[in-house]
């Protein structure tokens, strides 16, 4: 049995971001991947191991995914106004009179 409150809470949450949120998420993704890429390169150079570089960049990809992919409230501050849908209009059927 599903309670009414839990279904209303799920339905009321907006799961899409807006254009400003998408822009912010894209910039965050580039910054996170860039920082981890540079840090991974430096760490791998110091350790003389490409494997270490790969690990650091992989962690950066995971962090970027956790920050950018979920629909966080910070990405939904500027919702788009949508028009309410109107009831569909049924077309009138015009019958032609038969000629005798």
Fill in the keyword field for this structure.
100 residues; elongated; 57% helix; 3 helices
Please characterize this protein's 3D structure.
The longest helix has 29 residues, at 19-47. With 100 residues, the protein is mainly alpha-helical. Helices cover 57% and strands 0% of the residues.
Q: What is the overall shape?
A: elongated
Cα-atom radius of gyration: 26 Å
Uncertain runs are: none
Quaternary structure state of the chains depicted: single chain
Structural class of the secondary elements? Answer: mainly alpha
Query: What is the straight-line distance between the termini?
Result: 65 Å
How many helical stretches? 3
What is the residue-mean pLDDT, rounded to a whole number? Answer: 83
**Strand-residue fraction?**
under 5%
Query: H/E order of the elements?
Result: HHH
What is the helix content? 55-70%
Total beta-strand segments: 0
Main sheet, how many strands, which sense, barrel? none
């Amino acid at each position: 049995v599903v309670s009414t409150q839990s279904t209303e809470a799920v339905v009321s949450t907006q799961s899409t971001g807006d254009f400003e949120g998408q822009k912010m998420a894209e910039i965050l993704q580039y910054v996170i991947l860039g920082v981890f890429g540079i840090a991974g390169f430096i760490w791998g150079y110091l350790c003389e191991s490409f494997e270490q570089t790969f690990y650091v960049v992989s962690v950066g990809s995971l962090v970027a995914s956790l920050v950018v992919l979920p629909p966080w409230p910070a990405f939904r501050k500027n919702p788009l106004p949508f028009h309410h849908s109107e009831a569909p209009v049924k077309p009138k059927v015009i019958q032609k009179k038969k000629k005798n």
